[in-house]
Amino acid sequence: MKKADYQRTAKLFYSATGIDITVYNPDGQPLITLTDDRAATKFYGSFPFKKLSNSLNSSGYNHYIAATKLEYLIIKLTTMAPKTGIIVAGPFITKTVSHDELNNILIANSLTVSESSQLEQFYQGLPILSPAKIGDIGTLLVNLFNHKLYQPNQTTITEKNASSLPNPITIINAQDKAQIERRYAAEQALMTAIASGDELAVKQQNSSINRITELFSNRIPNKPLRSTKNICFVYNTLCRIAAHQGGVHPVYLNAISEKYALLIERQNTVTGLQSLTTAMALAYCKLVATLSTNGYSPMIKRAIDYMLLNLGHHIALQQIATEVGTNPTYLSRKFKEAVGLTITDYINNRRVAEAKKYLVRKTPSITDIALMTGFNNVTYFIKVFKQLVGKTPLAYRNNSNRRES
Question: Between 49 and 86, where is the model more confident?
Answer without folding.
Answer: 86
